[in-house]
Amino acid sequence: MPPDSPSSGLPSPARRTVLGAAAAASVLAGLPGTATAAPATPSAPAPRRKPRALPGGGDLGPNVLVFDPATPNIQARLDEVFRRQESAQFGTGRYQLLFKPGAYHGLNAQIGFYTSIAGLGLSPDDTTINGDITVDAGWFGGNATQNFWRSAENLAVVPVNGTNRWAVSQAAPFRRMHVRGNLNLAPTGYGWSSGGYIADSRIDGEVQPYSQQQWYTRDSVIGGWLNGVWNMVFSGVEGAPAQGFPNPPYTTLATTPVSREKPFLYLQGSEYRVFLPEKRTNARGVTWGNGTPRGTSLPLSRFYVAKPGVSAATLNQALAQGLHLLLTPGIYHLDQPVRVDRAGTVVLGLGYATLIPDNGVTALKVADVGGVRLAGFLVDAGPVNSATLLEVGPRGASRDHSADPTTVQDVFVRIGGAGPGKATTGMVVNSRHTIVDHTWVWRADHGDGVGWETNRADYGVVVNGHDVLATGLFVEHFNKYDVQWFGERGRTIFFQNEKAYDAPNQAAIQNGSTKGYAAYRVGDGVTTHEGWGLGSYCYYNVDPTIVQHHGFAAPNRPGVRFHDLLVVSLGGNGQYERVINDAGAPTSGTSTVPSTVVSYP
C-alpha cells in the first residue's frame, strides 16, 4: 500500500481539482430514429384521423450489443466500444452490452463512459464471466474522480487474479452483481477516487475501498470491508462492519426501511421481458439468493422501444396507448415534457439514454399516481433555462402511495459539462412515499459551458412530498441550496455533496445574514425528519477565503434527527464554521480533516 493511501491515515487530496485533456467525443453517425405513421391530411371539413397505433416491442437498435457464449470475437468488440468511450466524458456515444445466460471465458470487459454491461438471466449466476469487468483510470493519469456514468448489473464475475477492479466515482452503480472474489474500488496506483454505490450484490471476498472518499452499500452480502476514508454507509448489508463513525467512519443500519430493486431486462427463452422486483420492507441481503426473485414481469411487446430521434409527442402517444417506455442508447431531444400519467408505468433506459429539453421545458413529469418506475437514464439540461428538469408528482400531490411507491433509480441529472445548460431546479419530488434510490444531481464543475452564471442552477433536489426516502443521494455544486426538504417524515440514508467550486466571492453565496447556503436544508416547518451518514465538502478554488457557515440546516426540534454528519474543507479552499446549524467544530487549515457530529440534536 503506498504511503499516500487513505488507509495509512493521511488525508485524501481534493477531488477533481484538475480537468484532464479534452475528452474524445465518439460521435456515432446514422443513429436511426423510430419511424411513426403520419396522420392523413384530409380535405376540409373531414375530421382529422387519429395517429396510427404505435407497435410495442421490436429490435433494440445498433448500440445494444448482445452476446452469447458462441459469439465470435467478443473481446475485440468490447475493446472497440471501450476505445470509443474510455475518455469520451462528454461525448455522444451510448452503449448497452448484454450477455445471454451461459459461461464466458477469458474476457476483460473494460467499461468506459456511458456504457452499461448486464446479464440477461433472472439471476446474476445465470451469466458468468470468467474474467474481469474493469474500470480503471489510465485515461486520466490514475485519477478516478471523473469515472462517471457507467454501470454493471446482473452478472457473476470470477476475476482472473481473484480481485475485480471497479474504480469509479459518481453515477456508476454496481447492482445485482456476484463477485466470486474480492472487489477493489481504487484505480491502479491507489489514486484519488470519489464513489460510489453497490446494491443487491454478493461479494464473496473482501471489498477494498482504499482511496474511496465515500461509499454507500445497500441490501447486499459481503465477505469483509477493508477500510474507510470519510463516510462509508451500509444499510441491510450482511457482513458490513460495525457502526463506528467517526473512527472508523462506518455508519451501519441493520436493514433498509423500504426498498424495491431496479427493473431489468432478461430473456425467457428467446423472448425479452422486463422484470419488476417487488417492494421489500426492513430489507437485508440480496433478492436473488434463493431461486426465482420475487416480483412480476412484462413482455417487451408491452413497451414502446424508443430510438434516438423520436419526438416527445411520439413518446407521449406511446404512453397514452398504455405502453411502457424502453429508451435504447442515445440522445433524445424533447420539445415538450414526457408525461407519465398512468399508475405502474415503467420508463427504463439502456446505455445511459439521455433526455435533453431543448426549449426550457421539464424533461419528464409524473402524475400523482403510484407504482411508477423510472430507471437508468440521464437528464441533461438544455441551453434555455428549465424551471425543473424532472418532476415526480405535480405540485400539491397528496395521495397515499405507501403500498406501491414510485421509484427513481439510477436517474441522473446534469446541468452543464456537455455544453451550456441551465435549470432553476434539477429534480422536484412531490409524490408521497417516493423512493429515490441512487441519483447524482450535478451542476457541472468542469467541461463545456461551465461558469457561475453560464450553467446557473440554484437548487439541486427539492422534496415537497411526505414520507419520501432517499437511499444514496449525491447532489453537488448548486448555486444556492443543493437539497431542500419540505415534506414530513423524510429520510435519507447516505448523502454526498460538494458546494460549488466556482463561487466568485463571499457576497455571491451570502444567504441573508448567513454565510452560504446549506448543502442540505430541512424546512423550518418540518416536524419529523431523519438522516444517516451525510457529508458536505467545500473547495472554493476561485476564492479560497470564502467561509461557509454550515453544511446542514434544520429546525431544532426532537423529531428532526441526524446521525453521523461531516463537513470537510478540501485543502483549505474555503472553510466551514459549523457542521449543522450552530453545532460542530469549525474546519481549519489545509489538512482536509473532517469535522463531525455523531448525533443531532
TrEMBL record:
Which Gene3D superfamilies does the entry mention?
Answer: Single-stranded right-handed beta-helix, Pectin lyase-like
Q: Where is this region: Disordered?
A: 32-61
May I ask which residue range the UniProt record assigns to the signal sequence?
A: 1-37
> Which InterPro entries does the record associate with it?
Pectin_lyas_fold (IPR012334), SACTE_4363 (IPR059186), TAT_signal (IPR006311)
Q: Is Signal among this UniProt entry's keywords?
A: yes
Q: Where is the composition biased (Low complexity)?
A: 32-43
In terms of superkingdom, the source organism counts as Bacteria
User: What keywords sit in the KW lines?
Assistant: Signal
Name of the protein this chain belongs to: Coagulation factor 5/8 type domain-containing protein
